[in-house]
Amino acid sequence: MFSHLRMKYIFFLLAIATIVAGVPLEKMRNSTLKQTQTLSLSRRAHPLCPDPRYPVFASSFCRNERTLANVCEAQDFPNLYDITDRPCEPDSTCVDFVRIDKSTPLAGCIHNNNIRRWNNGGDRGLICSKDGDFGFRLDANTLIIGVTTYDANSNPTAVDTISGSVGGRALGRTLHESHFSAVYKNYRAGQTIKMCFDAGSRFVTAVAAAFVPGSGNNDEFTVLSLE
Questions:
Q1: Cα Rg, the chain, nearest whole Å
Q2: Which positions make up the signal peptide (predicted)?
Q3: Is 22 exposed, middle or buried (0-12, 13-18, 19+ CB in 10 A)?
């Protein structure tokens, strides 16, 4: 069974499967890598946006399993942006989520103790989380669940479909994307979470995690831990 982790993470926005700063996500994924340190959702200069031409943090996304990319905008020209990257901590994996207040996605480096990882073994059809479905020993007014799919080279890869359910209630699905995230209201302890994907015959690994958003506007989240 599962219990919630007694630690907090700060995560940051990403416009998944849409447009960030006027540029498609896939173009951002292929941009030059740069290392950075931390993020903030504040619309002001931040250490993760060290270039004075692009001082405003706008969003973030999973560049690959081990790298989280940040999008920094120009103060007066939001359509002008720069992308900087930071590596995840050891034993952590990048997962894409969605931020509840603006319905915009978010990316975070999650410790491997707190993720569900499974692959399709190159088999066709809908492949669901292995080692049993997962859940948590707590009630939560809001639970945010995220899944990212990676290819054999640890890069995000679009699959035919990603879908999920909580307690048998469908969360929806996404088509031809490398990520899926959903906000679930009124989670009750012990409800089963099932996440699935179909990638055809390609070997693909999926990574899933969940968190509870904190109160206030400081973008603090409690990551839920698997045992």
A1: 17
A2: 1-22
A3: exposed
Length of the chain: 227
pLDDT digits 0-9 by tens, 14-69: 323 322 323 334 444 444 333 222 333 444 556 777 889 999 877 788 999 999 98
Span 200-213, mean pLDDT?
92
- Six-digit token pair at 182? 């959903």
pLDDT of amino acid 218? 42
Going from the C-alpha of 75 to that of each of 33, 41, 139, 219, the distances in angstroms are 22, 14, 41, 21
The burial of 80, by beta-carbon neighbours within 10 Å (0-12 exposed, 13-18 middle, 19 or more buried), is given as middle
**Average pLDDT of span 146-172:** 96
The confidence score (pLDDT) of residue 17 equals 30
Rounded Cα distance, 126 and 158, in Å: 14
- Nearest CA-CA partner of 107 in 190, 199, 28: 28
Domains of the chain: 2-9+114-226 (2.60.120), 12-87 (no CATH)
Rounded to an integer, what distance in angstroms lies between the CA atom of residue 52 and that of residue 45?
8
Cα distances (Å, whole numbers) of residue 29 to 17, 62, 68, 139: 12, 8, 10, 36
**Alpha carbons within 13 A on the beta-carbon side of 100:** 20
